[in-house]
Write a structure and sequence with these properties.
The chain contains 17 helices and 11 strands. It is an alpha/beta fold. The chain has a domain of 304 residues: Alpha-Beta Complex (Amidase signature (AS) enzymes), CATH 3.90.1300.
Length: 502
C-alpha cells in the first residue's frame, strides 16, 4: 500500500488501480476521492464535466469496498472511476446532450452502457461536455461553453466528445465513454494524446444513447493506454435485445489482443485516398514514422485504393442531417426539457416552434434544415437516395481492401488541435476535421486512434487511426498494443505523461 499511496492516484492507469483495489492496497473510496479532488482543482479551467455526481460516486465506491471485504466477485475494473459522455442516459442524473433544450431533464432509466458499467463495479464520476447533440468536432458547439484541451488551454479538445477526452488528458478520470458518429471518439483522442475506439456498429448497444444518426452512432471506450481501453471495451460490449441493431455474437477477445500485441506477418494497408493530401506537416511526419515502425515490427505494409472515399464527406453530410432531422423532431417542449412561449397566448404549434428556436443552437439548426431539405418531396432521391448509394460503394471499397490486408491505417485527424474560435464560424473547415474518420462510420467498421508523438511545429499530439473489418475489433488492439509498446520503449513513458501540468 505504501508504494501506491506514495504516488498520485490520478496518474495511475485503470488496470493498476483495479489491481490495487482488488488486492486491498488502496480502497475504491480513496481512489474516487482523489479523482473528485482533481476535478475540483483543474476542471474550472478545463470544463470537461457538465455534472459531477460526487455523492453517488462515493456511494458506489464504498459498495465496491464492501464487496471486496465480503470476498464477492469483482469486475476487472472494479472501483475505477469513469467519465461518461452526456449523451447516455443515467437514471436520475441530468442528461443534456450539451443542449439547452434538455436542460433539467433527469432520465427515468439507465442506458445499456451505464447498466454494464454498474454491473462491472465501475464508478461513474459524472457527465462530460460535448458538442450539442454530438454535432461538431471541437466541443465549441456545447450550449454550456467550450471544453479546453489540457495540452494547451487555448485549443480545442476535439469533438463531439471533447469532454471525455479532456477528462482523460487532465487526469480527472482514467476511463471515459464516448460516442462516435463520424469520428467523435477518435478525433478527440488524437488531439489530446489519448486512446479511443469506435467498436463495430452494433457491438455496443445504443439503448439509452440519445440518437443523432441512428445508422451511424456507436458508443465506445476511451482511456490513456491500449490495455485500459480494451478492458473497458470488454465491459460494455455484447448483445442487447432492446437494440435491434445489436449483434448477437461473441465479443472479440480485445483484452487478449491488447496483452499480446504482435504484428509479425500482418498485412497493413495504406489507403491511397487518405494519404498525404491536406495533412499538417507534423501529422504527416509522425504518420510516416509509424508506418516505418510497423514495418520494423514485422508487418507488411502495402498501398490499397478505396476510390469512393473521396465522396464520403458529401454522402455523410446528407445522411447524418437527414437522420438528425427525424430523430430531433421529438424535442418539441411538450413532454420533457425546455418549454418556451407557454404563457397562454400561443398555440401548441407556436410553443413548439418557439421552444425549438430557443433550445437548439446554430449548428443543430443548420443540420436539421439540411436534413429536412434532403428528405423533402422531389429531393429525396437526388440527395438522400444518392448518398445511400455512395455509402454502399464505400462499404464495397472496404470489403475489397480487407480482402488484401488485415487492417488499414491513416492519420486520425488532418491537423493537431486548433485554437478555440479558429474554425467555429466556418462549417466546411470544421467538417474537414473528420475526413479520415467518416468512411468507417458509413461502413460500420471498427477503428481506433492512439497517440504516435508530438508534431514538431506546435508540440501537440498526433493520432494514428487503425481500421478493422466488422467484428474484428481485436485486430485494433493487436496493432495498437504493438505500436504503443514500441513507442513506450523508445520514450520511456506514455505520450500523455508529457502533457503540461495544469
Amino acid at each position: 500500500m505504501a508504494d501506491l499511496m506514495g504516488n498520485d492516484l490520478t496518474r495511475q492507469s485503470a488496470s493498476t488501480l483495479a489491481d490495487a483495489i482488488s488486492q486491498g492496497e488502496v480502497s475504491a473510496e480513496e481512489v474516487t476521492k482523489a479523482h473528485l479532488e482533481r476535478i475540483a482543482d483543474v476542471d474550472p479551467r478545463v470544463h470537461a464535466f457538465l455534472y459531477v455526481d460526487s455523492d453517488d460516486a462515493l456511494a458506489a465506491a464504498r459498495g465496491v469496498d464492501a464487496k471486496r471485504a465480503r470476498g464477492d466477485q469483482l469486475g476487472a475494473l472494479a472501483g475505477v472511476p469513469l467519465a461518461l459522455k452526456d449523451v447516455l442516459t443515467m437514471k436520475g442524473v441530468p442528461t443534456t446532450c450539451g443542449s439547452k433544450i434538455l436542460e433539467g431533464w433527469r432520465p427515468p432509466y439507465d442506458s445499456h452502457v451505464v447498466e454494464r458499467l454498474r454491473a462491472n463495479d465501475i464508478v461513474i464520476l459524472g457527465k462530460t461536455n460535448m458538442d450539442e447533440f454530438a454535432m461538431g468536432s471541437s466541443t465549441e458547439h456545447s450550449a454550456y461553453g467550450p471544453t479546453r484541451n489540457p495540452w494547451d488551454l487555448e485549443r480545442i479538445p476535439g469533438g463531439s466528445g471533447g469532454g471525455s477526452s479532456a477528462a482523460l488528458a487532465a487526469f480527472e478520470a482514467p476511463l471515459a465513454i464516448g460516442t462516435d458518429t463520424g469520428g467523435s471518439i477518435r478525433q478527440p483522442a488524437a488531439v489530446t494524446g489519448t486512446v479511443g475506439v469506435k467498436p463495430t456498429y452494433g457491438g455496443v448497444s445504443r439503448y439509452g444513447l440519445v440518437a443523432l444518426a441512428s445508422s451511424l452512432d456507436q458508443a465506445g471506450p476511451c482511456a490513456r493506454n491500449v490495455l485500459d481501453t480494451a478492458l473497458l471495451h470488454a465491459a460494455i460490449a455484447g448483445h442487447d435485445p432492446r437494440d435491434s441493431t445489436s449483434i448477437n455474437a461473441a465479443v472479440p477477445d480485445v483484452v487478449g489482443a491488447a496483452l499480446n500485441g504482435d504484428v509479425r506477418g500482418m498485412r497493413i494497408g495504406l489507403v491511397r485516398e487518405l494519404s498525404g493530401a491536406g495533412y499538417q506537416a507534423g501529422v504527416e511526419l509522425r504518420f510516416r514514422e509509424a508506418v516505418e515502425l510497423l514495418e520494423g515490427l514485422g508487418a507488411e505494409v502495402i498501398e490499397v485504393s478505396c476510390p469512393h472515399f473521396e465522396y464520403a464527406l458529401g454522402a455523410y453530410y446528407l445522411i447524418l442531417p437527414s437522420e438528425a432531422s427525424s430523430n430531433l423532431a421529438r424535442f418539441d417542449g411538450m413532454r420533457y426539457g425546455l418549454r418556451a412561449g407557454d404563457d397562454g397566448s400561443h398555440s401548441v404549434e407556436e410553443v413548439m416552434a418557439i421552444t425549438r428556436e430557443a433550445g437548439f443552437g446554430p449548428e443543430v439548426k443548420r443540420r436539421i434544415m439540411l436534413g429536412t431539405y434532403a428528405l423533402s418531396s422531389g429531393y429525396y432521391d437526388a440527395y438522400y437516395g444518392q448518398a445511400q448509394k455512395v455509402r454502399t460503394l464505400i462499404t464495397r471499397d472496404f470489403d475489397a481492401a480487407f480482402a488484401q490486408v488485415d487492417v488499414l491505417i491513416s492519420p486520425t485527424a488532418p491537423t493537431t488541435a486548433f485554437k478555440i474560435g479558429e474554425k467555429v464560424d466556418d462549417p466546411i473547415a470544421m467538417y474537414l476535421n473528420d475526413v479520415a474518420t467518416i468512411p468507417v462510420n458509413l461502413a460500420g467498421n471498427a477503428a481506433m486512434s492512439l497517440p504516435i508523438g508530438l508534431a514538431p511545429e506546435d508540440g501537440l499530439p498526433v493520432g494514428l487511426q487503425i481500421i478493422a473489418p466488422p467484428m474484428a475489433d481485436d485486430r485494433l488492439y493487436r496493432v495498437g498494443s504493438a505500436v504503443e509498446s514500441a513507442l513506450v520503449d523508445t520514450w520511456g513513458h506514455l505520450l500523455i505523461e508529457e502533457a503540461p501540468a495544469l
